[in-house]
Amino acid sequence: MSSLSSASIPSSVSSSSASAPQFAHSAQSQGVSLPDEVAFELLHSELVGQVLEKTDPEERERALSNLELIGFNAGYRLIEKLTRESPKFKDELDLMKFVCKDFWTCVFRKQIDNLRTNHQGVYVLQDNRFKFLAKVSESRQYLESAPKFVIFSCGLVRGSLANLGVNSIVTAEISSQLPSVKFQVQVQRS
Question: CA-CA distance, 88 to 91, in Å (whole number)?
Fold first, then answer.
């Protein structure tokens, strides 16, 4: 990959994302656990658990593919609701900033920590405290299962971008300093 440059992500949450993400974020910072957030984490853990139970490699691959597809469908539908009142994006980088800021805040109650691009259709979204790996990082014995905890999120990003007209391939790289994850988005030009 050629050199990447950093893109700044404004820290203020725009009015287009309504007050729900702001309320959820402020409630979380005060130590309040939101029921929908807990339910989402439990659902995700159960979905990944179903994949991990598969012993046949072919069945496991099919389950992983289905998990990514569930994420794709969820991201596709969620971004539609989030962008309903938003103005059109001026370019691809503006669209990626929206995903890193508003979309990520809606789903994970925090913004992406770093967005980099090579301005040739490759974007790297870094989350230094990825929610779905927080529990895995506490138990090093499950480290080899860690990649399965990011597949759903790869689908979320890919689905959200597909709805916005961007065909992409999304992969994740789990760093040795868990729970840090880098999501690489490679835009597929036609």
Answer: 9
- Residue 2, CA distances (Å) to 93, 95, 123, 163 in order: 17, 21, 11, 27
pLDDT tens digits, 44-60: 677 777 776 777 889 88
Q: Pick 17-187's CATH classification: 3.20.20.60, 3.40.50.620, 3.40.1170.60, 3.30.1380.20.
A: 3.30.1380.20
Rounded alpha-carbon distances, angstroms, from residue 4 to 36, 95, 99, 114, 168: 36, 17, 18, 11, 18
Q: Residue 25's pLDDT is what?
A: 40
**What's the whole-number mean pLDDT along residues 115-123?**
94
45: tokens are: 């853990």
Name the amino acid, one letter, at 64.
L
The pair of three-digit structure tokens given for residue 48, joined into one six-digit string:
């990944």
Side-chain-facing half-sphere of 158: CA atoms under 13 Å? 22
What does the block give as tokens for 163? Answer: 């709805």
Domain residue spans of the chain: 17-187
pTM of the model: 0.75
